[in-house]
Amino acid sequence: xxxxxxxxLWGSATSSxxxxxxxxxxxxxxxIWDAHAHIPGRTANNENGDIACDHYHKxxxxxxxxxxxxxxxxxxxxxxxxxxxxxxxxxxxxxxxxYSNLIxxxxxxxxxxxxxxxxxxxxxxxxTEKDGWLNPEIADYFQKYAHICFxxxxxxxxxxxxxxxxxxxxxxxxAEGVFAPGRKSKDEPYLVAHQLLRSHGKAxxxxxxxxxxxxxxxxxxxNNCDWREPLTNKPEDIExxxxxxxxxxxxxxxxxxxxxYPASMRKSLGDRLPKFTEEDKAIILGSSDFFGLNHxxxxxxxxxxxxxxxxxNVYGNGGISEDQNVKLTTDPSWKKTAMEWPIVPWGxxxxxxxxxxxxxxxxxxxTENGCAFNDTMVDGKIxxxxxxxxxxxxxxxxxxxxxxxxxxxxxFLWSLMDNFEWAQGYSKRFxxxxxxxxxxxxxxxxxAYWFKEVIANNGFKTFE
Length: 464
Ligand code: GAL
Fold this sequence. Notes:
Strand content: 15-25%
Distance between the termini: 11 Å
Mean pLDDT: 96
Bound molecules: beta-D-galactopyranose
Helix content: 40-55%
Largest sheet: 8 strands, parallel, barrel
Shape: globular
Number of helices: 16
Strand order of the largest sheet: 2-3-4-5-6-8-11-12
Low-confidence stretches: 309-313
C-alpha cells in the first residue's frame, strides 16, 4: 500500500463555465467564453456552455456526489459575470446567493471549499469596452471583484486561488487564438501575462492587508506546466528543455518566488517582455501562500535555432516556440489520452522536484491532474480502466516525489464530472462521474469507486 502523509488533502476540481450552465439566468451576463463559443467553428460541434452540466440548478446533487466519494476538498471557480455582470460596478445579489448556498452545502457535508476567482470567463463587457487583460487597469477591476468575493464568502472560505493557468490565458487566448478571446499575436501574450501577474498581486495584497488576519485563510495562484525532457544528453538539448520550462512555468512562477521573469526570457525577448516597476515587484514577490500546479503531460525538447531552419515545426503546448528556440516532439512509444497528450507519469515527478529545487521547496498542491478517454456506458456501467491506470501511475509519481523531499500537500482530480472541455466542447470526457448530455444524469465511473478507496485509505495498492 502506498500511503500518503497524514494531513494529505484529497479533492476534485471543476470550473464555472465548464459546468454551471444557466448562462443568462440569475442575472448573469456573458463572459468572453460565452461569446467565443457562440462563434461558429470555434468549438467542436459548435458546442457552448449555455447548459453545460446544469450545475447551477443541480449543485445540491453534485455536492452529494462528492460526499458519496468521501471527497474532502472541492475546487471550483466563480463566474465573475455572475457576481458583476459588467465586470465592474453593481453586484448581482442572485450570483452572491448562488455561491453562498453552494459553500454552505459543501460545509454541511464537511467538504472544504477551494475557490478560484478566475478560470478564464472574463465578463465580456470588460473585454469589449476596456480591452480586457491588455489594459493595465484590469488589475484594479480584478482587485475590486476579489474584494466582493472575500467580503461575502471569506467568513467560510479559507482557500483562495486568484487565477487559473495564466499560461493558457496568454498563449491559447492571445497567441494561438484557439481559446477566448481568440486573438493571434506574437506580442500580446507577454503583455497579458504581465497584467495577470499584476492583478494576482493586487488581489493578494488586498486579502493580506484587509482580510487574512480576521478570516485566517490562505491565498495563492495556480499555474500549469507540462514536463520537458531533453531529447538527447547533448548540453544544448538539456538547456533547451530547461529554457522551455522557464518559458512555461518560470514565466509566471519566477516573478512570484524569485522577483522577476527568467533571465532566459529577457535574453530572448528583450523589450517585448514588459518590465515590472519596483512597486509591482514588491507586490508580486512572495504573493503565494502555496504553489498551485496543474499538470497533465510531458514532451521531448531539443535545441532548434531559428536561423538554421526557415519554418518551425511546432508540436503540442509549445508557447511561441520560435521565441524559445526549442522544438517539441513526442516519443512514439508513449501511450496517449483522448486529448493526444502523452502519458508520462515520471514527468510529473521530475517537475515536482524541479519546483522543489528552483523555488526552495514550497508547499505544493496539485490543483488539477486527470485525463480524458472515450468512455462508454455498457449496461449502465463505465469501466474506465485506462483512467484508473493513469491516476494510479501519476499518484505513484507523487508518492515518489514526496519520498524525495517534495512538500506536496494535496491532490485535486480533474474532474469531478464530464464537462464542457473548451474548444473540444463535450467531445472529451475528463470526469470520474459520467454525464449523459441528453438528460444530464450523472453516473459514477469505475474510477470514482477507485478514487473513493484511495481517499478512504489515504493511499492505494499500485499496479506497478
Ligand atoms: C486545464 C484547465 C481545465 C481543464 C483541463 C483539461 O488546463 O484548467 O479547465 O479543461 O485543463 O483540459
